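hi!! sorry for the late reply, been swamped w classes. u asked for the two structures so here they r. pasted raw, havent cleaned anything up. first the sequence of the first protein and right below it the tokens
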Amino acid sequence: MMIFCIRRYSVCVAVFATLLSTAAAAAAATTPRAWLVSKGNAQAVLVGESHVSTPVENDRYFETVVKPGYAVAEVAVMETYFGPDQLQNGSFALGAPCFDDPKGLHTQRLHLALDALIRTTRDSHVDVPNWLEGWEIFPQYLASTLLDTFTTESLGPAYGIAFATGVSFRLRGKGTVSKKTIGLDKLVDRRTHFCNASAADRTDFVADKALQVSRLLRLKQSDPSFTSLGNLAGVAGEAINETIRCVDQAVPCAIDQVSPEEQILQDKGWAMHYSSGTFEIMIKQRTRAWVPLIAKTVSEHRRSFVIVGALHLPDLRVGKRVEPGLISLLRQQGFSVTRIDGAGDISATFLSPSWFDRVRAALGSL
């Protein structure tokens, strides 16, 4: 499925310290991971990613479709981008309780999850922060955000290495094309998504995060430098392949029936378990938040580039109901959405220079 990064509550959690070397050796296969979104004369290339470097995402498709699509776009919209605009009203977003805090926070499952995290933290010879000892007095969203900060601090520098190797990070990295970039949402929006969920869902989400941090700390105990994590690159690649294959299936994939690859990632702590709360907050609400942002971007630019966590793309079965994914939601809004199998699908359209580009190039050659 999709790997989530704990840092800054992005829809991603993973660190692979040695992925770049393993990815380069396995880049032969091509897996289509992009769709052309069109309305009128405006178009966008929509890409699904895992947020970390995998062999699947370092293939010929990246070089011939993803990278050129980004290069010619007027604007890029990225789930992993979190700029100054996203931090507006940050203090309020972090400290303000949800309207029904703290009820629902003190469930047995959450108590057990945070008690387990405290024990694992001590076993790892890491200082237990004061907020973790007294978590019950903190607003739910603040506790969730403090878990993110604690994760990056307790796991050390190796934890952050993969954040610079995922597709979206590489595209906007040093030496690449400079481009106007927009993030999915502001910190205050993330708090709104969190507080809009039921108290039970919020509790499940915080418990899932606490249990995930415990698994990551246990993994660090056995492998302090994370040197063995490069072996999971192929596993992560197969997981994103499974997610991409779910798009446009006649029978939507079930979120609670994960692939063996995804199960491995969850057991290792590199992916979250999809409780009702985690799905509601991390997938459903954020998928729906993408729709107006993409619609606005496409209405203002002829060519846009959008890159999202892959699990936002397909329709997904959650129990007995089906939650529409981003591709279905865009089609419901009148957009044409077609898969890009290769560069030939967009060479005469999205990748073709506009009249303005040709004039500018001609003037530049004078």
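now the second protein. again sequence first, tokens right under
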Amino acid sequence: MSILPYAGTDDETTDNHTFSPELLSDAQCMGDACAICHARWPRPRHPLGVLPDGGCVFGCAECSGLAAAYGARGEAPEFAVR
């Protein structure tokens, strides 16, 4: 899995990440492939962020869940309890 390639966050909201198109393939920039794992099927439908030109960047269901969980993490460290 590649690292979430964003250049920063949108000034108006922290929910939209701005992705750098230089780090994405043409298929990812066009919304034909997941911006994180490059999966093309099923076609990515979950918005992950935007490109600097305003285009949407999409992710598959699994990666969008991971991105949402990553964004929801607080600054507090996570602990695992057995």
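hope this helps!! also noticed smth abt the second:
The chain has two helices and four strands.
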